[in-house]
Design brief:
With 271 residues, the protein is mostly helical. The protein has 14 helices and five strands. A three-stranded mixed β-sheet has the order 4-3-5. The protein has a two-stranded parallel ribbon with strand order 1-2. β3 and β4 form a beta hairpin. The radius of gyration is 18 Å and the shape is globular. It starts with 6 loop residues before the first helix and ends with a helix.
Amino acid sequence: MFPRLCLTLALALAATPAAAWGPAGHRITAQIAQDNVSGQTRAQIEQIIGGETLPEAATWPDEQRSNPATFWQETASPWHFVTLRPGQAAEDLDHPEEGDGASALERFSAILRDPSASREDKATALRFVVHIVGDLHMPLHVGRPGDRGGNDVRVLWFDEPQNLHWVWDEGMILQQQLSFSEYSERLTRRITPDDVIAWWDVRPEVWMDESAALRERLYPATNEETGLGTRESPVRLSWQYAYDWTPSVEQRLQQAGIRLAAYLDWAFAKP
């Protein structure tokens, strides 16, 4: 069903700038999930990908975006995000013909649940599911039309030329100067039993609606209001923006990890 790909080569390639959360964010989410899945789910994951951990699997779809094959450059490219208009509910999402993150998640979940699917196809599906669940919790990967999820909004991040998407992908996470394992351990300690109960939800529509609601608040004053946000006149973001929004970044990582555990438990549940 999917082309054979060289994982060793892929791991040597850098993720593209548009990758949701960046490698650290995806690994944090996957580590939280790995610590919260059931024993049965853990065993089935090991049957599929052997000794590969979920944090290792989580970055694979982004690493493959550097693969020149048409499948990765064209076919799979739209599977990392969805587009929701302001005020549009995720249950009313219009999937484009080429697919999007939500339709890809449904497709790969069906492969995981198909007892006749090959181990190779299930391994590809599992890596995509782990990745996409993280993507859908990143507010700018549930993007509004017109600015490519904030990639077109130019900013100065502590005087470094960047874009708003990168600030959420990596900027606020890297600012903590923690390894993904250190960061996931910190965030796990802060997740209460009440949080796990409240967040244990396998409905992608819920995750996307949350991301879209958050997205509508996180934009700084941009070109439409002030003439800022362009390459010539970027928005300056620094300590205040980080102070205001890092707690939201961390909560979305925590929620993505718990939801991924719930989703994998559901996907591997016996019929």
